[in-house]
């Protein structure tokens, strides 16, 4: 397991723009897509390649192609949808497996209410996307669902994480890699990440 905090200047610049209090819905959405795309670039850097023969304009040559397992992107409803286009820009043939969870008011634990996973998920690498890794409850529940369905290779892509959320995921699933634009300071008493982005779902969907 590793936590990869992506310090690339483009990622840091775009994330900084997302932190502006008065950012428009349009701009926030665009930036969530762009940072999602850049995180995908990092998260796919170890996909195995194989050599294949093709007929090029200059005659027969060998080229590299991604081999083996294909990808499924797993947005956690609803805010995860805001990063999905960015992932699909780089992996356009990826299948989408959607997961939704609500928080039980008594136990405060996430309860799945929607799960539509791609068939034969055991043959795919899951890229789970959610802009905010706060307490980590939804992420752990999503990973649980994917594991139960047979998926063995799972990577987590988030824009901002709290140390508490990272700890919860890595305690439960030490083998899983997390790609994050910024590990922020802490959670506040309402479960918001500080300084964070505020309510990422509201900002992506323009709701309040
Ligand atoms: N969800 C959000 O949208 N923002 C946070 O800071 C934490 C959880």
Automatic annotation (TrEMBL):
Enzymatic class: transferase
Catalysed conversion reaction: UMP + diphosphate = 5-phospho-alpha-D-ribose 1-diphosphate + uracil
A Pfam family the protein falls into: UPRTase
Highest taxon of source: Bacteria
HAMAP family per the UniProt record, alphabetical: Upp_B
Family under the similarity heading: Belongs to the UPRTase family.
Name the record gives this protein: Uracil phosphoribosyltransferase
Gene behind the chain: upp
């Amino acid at each position: 397991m590793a936590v990869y905090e992506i310090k690339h200047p483009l990622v840091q610049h775009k994330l900084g723009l997302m932190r502006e209090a008065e950012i428009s819905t349009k701009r926030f959405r665009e930036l969530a897509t762009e940072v999602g795309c850049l995180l995908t670039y990092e998260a796919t850097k170890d996909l195995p390649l194989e050599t294949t023969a093709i007929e090029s304009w200059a005659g027969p040559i060998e080229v590299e192609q991604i081999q083996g397992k294909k990808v499924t992107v797993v947005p956690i409803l609803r805010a995860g949808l805001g990063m999905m286009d960015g992932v699909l820009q780089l992996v356009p043939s990826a299948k989408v497996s959607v997961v939704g969870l609500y928080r039980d008011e008594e136990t405060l634990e996430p309860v799945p209410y929607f799960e539509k996973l791609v068939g034969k998920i055991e043959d795919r690498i899951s890229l789970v996307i959610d802009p905010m890794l706060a307490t980590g409850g939804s992420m752990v529940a999503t990973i649980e669902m994917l594991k139960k369905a047979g998926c063995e290779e799972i990577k987590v892509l988030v824009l901002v994480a709290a140390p508490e959320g990272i700890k919860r995921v890595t305690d439960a699933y030490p083998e899983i890699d997390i790609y994050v634009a910024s590990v922020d300071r802490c959670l506040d008493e309402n479960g918001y990440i500080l300084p964070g982005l505020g309510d990422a779902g509201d900002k992506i969907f323009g709701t309040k």
